[in-house]
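Minutes, project check-in
Item: structure for the 85-residue chain
Input as provided by the requester:
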Amino acid sequence: MDKKVYEDIIKPFGSYERFKKRVDDIKFEIEMMKRTGKTSEEIFAELYEIWEREYLRAFNGDVKKAREHLMKVREWRRKLRNCES
């Protein structure tokens, strides 16, 4: 690999390993688009909508109760993180 290629292409990533990981991520994204016809962002959005519907269903559609539960979970996670530190 010559210096110009390194300076222009790989150096912005910080290292060859980071560059290689990004190339692998792009290859994976292309493969996923070929298989599903959707980008990873579209798949994420669909999965989030499904999760959100199921979560609200667990609280019988009560948004206030669901939000309170999420706040309790966040507080519990913060306490766990503080205990680990």
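Outcome recorded: DSSP finds four helices and no strands in the chain.
No further action items on this chain.
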